[in-house]
Description:
The protein is α/β, with parallel strands linked by helices and 227 residues long. It is built from 8 helices and 9 strands. The strands form 2 sheets. The protein has a 7-stranded mixed sheet, sandwiched between helices. A two-stranded antiparallel sheet has the order 2-3.
Amino acid sequence: MERKTETATAAVRPDAVGFVLAGGRSSRMGADKALVLLDGQPLVAHALGILRDAGLAASLAGGQPALATFAPLVEDSRPGLGPLSGVCAALASTASRWAIFISVDMPLLPASLLHFLLDHAQITKTPVTVASVNGFAQSFPVVLDRAVLPMLLSELQSGRRGCFSAFQAAAERLGEAMTVIPVEPLVQCRQLSHPRGLPATRWFLNVNTAEDLRRAEVHSGSADRVS
């Protein structure tokens, strides 16, 4: 079953790039999450498709060398330090001012959300932009101004590897506040929607376990097709 896309074609934006963070250990899944199948496609293909539907040139940040068959792969020079290390490596690899990062295990994100976050970041010139749902800010997806790279590297080198706290610290050191955009009002006023009609609370599902994968199958409709 082919992945449903939000747009038939999406012109590639020249002002930003997208990265899929794919370097996790997948310890709870018991296998490389990037290659776990959903709707007949590996999660890495779903994640890359979301970025491309948002009009972004898509690459992978970290992950096994075999993933390079799906998209250009930016190797993490310091593997084992978590996703923040992958974010830093990816930012260092691009000349684009803006970069969007999503996790490989979030297959239900709509491309429209990424498009909105990027537009908002570029209009407001905010260095860090994330979304929130049910009042909780999410680490990913995140739009970063490349100017935050030195601050993120400093956090990483200091042993502070948490992405969300590093994003906050980077924005503060640039004299800005991290922008957190609540998703629900945008859905209510029809500025955002999901191609399968999923409520916003389900967009941020992380597929970390076999049970999470089953839930994703139900939400994507694949469970109905095979039942």
